[in-house]
UniProtKB/TrEMBL annotation:
Keywords associated with the record: Signal
Species assigned in the record: Actinopolymorpha cephalotaxi
Sequence segments annotated as region (Disordered): 42-71
Listed GO CC annotations: membrane
Solute-binding protein family 3/N-terminal domain mapped to chain residues: 82-311
Name of the protein: Polar amino acid transport system substrate-binding protein
SMART domains named in the record: PBPb (SM00062), PBPe (SM00079)
Pfam annotation, one family: SBP_bac_3
Stretches with biased composition (Polar residues): 51-65
Span of domain Ionotropic glutamate receptor C-terminal: 82-310
Lineage: Bacteria, Bacillati, Actinomycetota, Actinomycetes, Propionibacteriales
Amino acid sequence: MPTATWSPAHTSRRGPRHRLAVLVSALACAVLAALTACAPEDSATGGQAGGTPTKSAKATGSATPTADGCAKSDLDLHTPGTLTVATDQPAYEPWFADDNPTSGKGFESAVAYAVARKLGFAASEVTWTRVRFNNAIQPGPKDFDFDINEFTITDQRKKAVDFSSSYYDATQAVVALKSAPIAKAKSVPDLKDAKLGAQVNTTSYDVINDVVQPSKQAQVFRSNDDARQALSNGSIDGLVVDLPTAFYMTAAQLENATIVGQLKQKSGTPEQFGLVLDKGSPLTACVTRAVDALRTDGTLDELAKTWLADVAGAPVLN
């Protein structure tokens, strides 16, 4: 089982290696100052989402600093020597298998370990922790290095957290019981009078209001499990989730259910899932670089084929 990794020592985002580096730098500066009027050193660290990696202050004290500051030894981690990765509980299929993110099975579990490898971490050096979806995207310090949980990258969320570059493009889909009136809907207007629901603070809920704009108030649920139960007992006519989740629900979790169709985003472009990091995290640029490398070398496509191979063929509702 994943374990929480918080301890008093974790209240600082800087590890012992950083503090030692600062001390060494300060002593060196003091000696040099006596000889050459050593100038103050800029201690600013970090990079922005998707930006060019910058060398951290920690790296300035490293015996072997790298040009991009993304070497394993240069990373400013929540827990020194360990890459702490978060996700929600339960963690749903097909993103994770059997609610066990440590297995490496399921698309997002596999992506997390692939990113870890790109950053130089063995699987044994990855620790998982559980964070509620809603809490992960709130402002404030995080107890993880990155969180992977189908987080759609949005401008609103970027005000509170950092995102890596996208590791998956997704669309939203409507799930209904085969007996429901909307099961045979062919267009978005056919959904206007339906009572639809989605998990709280998700883009699934936003799509209901922005794209469908139903005449009845959309229902919000704490989790997809709660929303699925509401669909089963007839409290709602349809449930909106991302397309891979819709396929899994209709195949394994709901009886006599069907995917009514995909919903196009209001912007016309698919949603993009990104890894969530602390706002201003010095890891953001390095994690983005790892995701970009996985996209370039074809790893992300291969993992999608392995774990999300069934997400083709759902009709698009216009």
